[in-house]
Amino acid sequence: MLLRHTPKEVVERSALTINPAKTCQPVGAMYAALGIHKCLPHSHGSQGCCAYHRSALTRHYAEPIMASTSSFTEGASVFGGQSNMLESINNIFALYDPDIIAVNTTCLSEVIGDDLNQIINRAIADNKIPKGKTVMYASTPSFKGSHVTGYANMLTAMVQNFATNTGKKNKSITLLPSFVEPSDMSEIKHIAAEMGIDYIMYPDTSGVVNAPMDGKFHMYPKGGTPREKIIASGDSRYALALGRVGTFQAAQLLDSKCKVKTEILDLPIGISATDAFIDKLRTTSGVTVPESITVERGQLVDVLCDKAQYVYGKKISLMGDPDILFGLVQFCKDAGMEVIHVITGTPAGAKWDRRIKELAGPNAIVKSGAQADLFYFHQLLQNTKPDLIFGNTYCKYIARDMDIPLIRTGFPIYDRIGHSYFPITGYRGGLHLLVKILDVFMDRQDRDASEEKFELVM
């Protein structure tokens, strides 16, 4: 009964957002910062803002998320947060000893107009930043964009602050992943390693937010990309950005600042996109695709062929983050499914809308931006009911109300476990995703089967 008030008739809204299909920029910025080794994310705003950002990530990953805050009070809100920031920098290096403090702004600090570049320069002049340490920042106001935008801005700040062109190229290929799970980052590294490629990848949250339990507290887990690697990315002979929305700015900056030839690809989700990623690795590195990768691809194709009858022609509705959505749409089309709705609360742009529309087909409804919210998504589903929903935890209310199976993808996922350990990228991730889809459809067939059609072998 939670959503029975949602009307079926869709009315165009130009300002009002109801139950947004996104969260705020600092969450994505904080997640990206965790992908640098010995980096402490810092929210320049009130304690409540930082508490929300940390809790969102903590609930999603079931891991303690380390971060600090400038702890604005009424005084800082009126007179500015410079003194809070300077004191924070001093305390953080003294107490927690990170190599890097990655500052993200909040609504409050953006509205009052704090100049973070000036504040950091003041901290340097006052010798508050120890030798060999760095304070960087990204502008991430919550009143625009989304968590994907915040991730993109922090990734761009990494390139701006660290990537350096010494004039002497190294043999590495730089990989810039969009906002994906640590398991997906591990899978991307697995593919590059299997192909024998010398790579640098950042950010890299694998081994940070999915670190093993060893009975000890680690302020800075072993994972994350070392600062030296990010610096060396400026001398890479090539760079591949994976996910057009989350990496576009950083990829452009790496190209223009360091003269690293950069190409932007889609996230390697499913057969077609993973094929494209592996082929680009092959051609840019001059290596051959090893048999191990060919076997992984063959296993995915084998399962898809064996059980194609369970997925072919199924109607699919998707909501989530733009780069992941593009990969999922491609995956569904490769499997013979029909995509009927695709929405994202991230302002992904008209080009993204067109690309999704071309991929999904002329009958698919595609929308991005603030008004592409869960209220609108529910209305679409009431007009054309799909066989399956892809989306985050917040879609469970719609799925329950309409009795539609839900596969949880994207951010946030609060009510299930495994997303930080099992990828959806690469061939192995595609196999994992396909098995989840098959399980959902076959469970539904068992649930709805009459007594005489309840089969042992399906």
From TrEMBL:
Statement: the UniProt record of this protein carries the keyword Iron-sulfur: yes
EC numbers, comma separated: 1.18.6.1
InterPro entries assigned: ChlB/BchB/BchZ, Nase/OxRdtase_comp1, Nase_comp1_CS, Nase_Mo-Fe_CF_bsu
Domain of life from the UniProt record: Bacteria
Domain (Nitrogenase/oxidoreductase component) ranges: 24-440
Record field: catalytic activity: N2 + 8 reduced [2Fe-2S]-[ferredoxin] + 16 ATP + 16 H2O = H2 + 8 oxidized [2Fe-2S]-[ferredoxin] + 2 NH4(+) + 16 ADP + 16 phosphate + 6 H(+)
Cofactors demanded by this protein: [8Fe-7S] cluster
GO cellular component annotations of the record: molybdenum-iron nitrogenase complex
Enzyme type, top EC level: oxidoreductase
GO molecular function, one term: nitrogenase activity
Keywords: ATP-binding, Iron, Iron-sulfur, Metal-binding, Nitrogen fixation, Nucleotide-binding, Oxidoreductase
Cofactor: record remark: Binds 1 [8Fe-7S] cluster per heterodimer.
Family note: Belongs to the NifD/NifK/NifE/NifN family.
Subunit note: Tetramer of two alpha and two beta chains. Forms complex with the iron protein (nitrogenase component 2).
Role noted for this protein: This molybdenum-iron protein is part of the nitrogenase complex that catalyzes the key enzymatic reactions in nitrogen fixation.
NCBIfam families in the cross-refs: nifK
Name of this chain's protein: Nitrogenase molybdenum-iron protein beta chain
Record organism: Leadbettera azotonutricia (strain ATCC BAA-888 / DSM 13862 / ZAS-9) (Treponema azotonutricium)
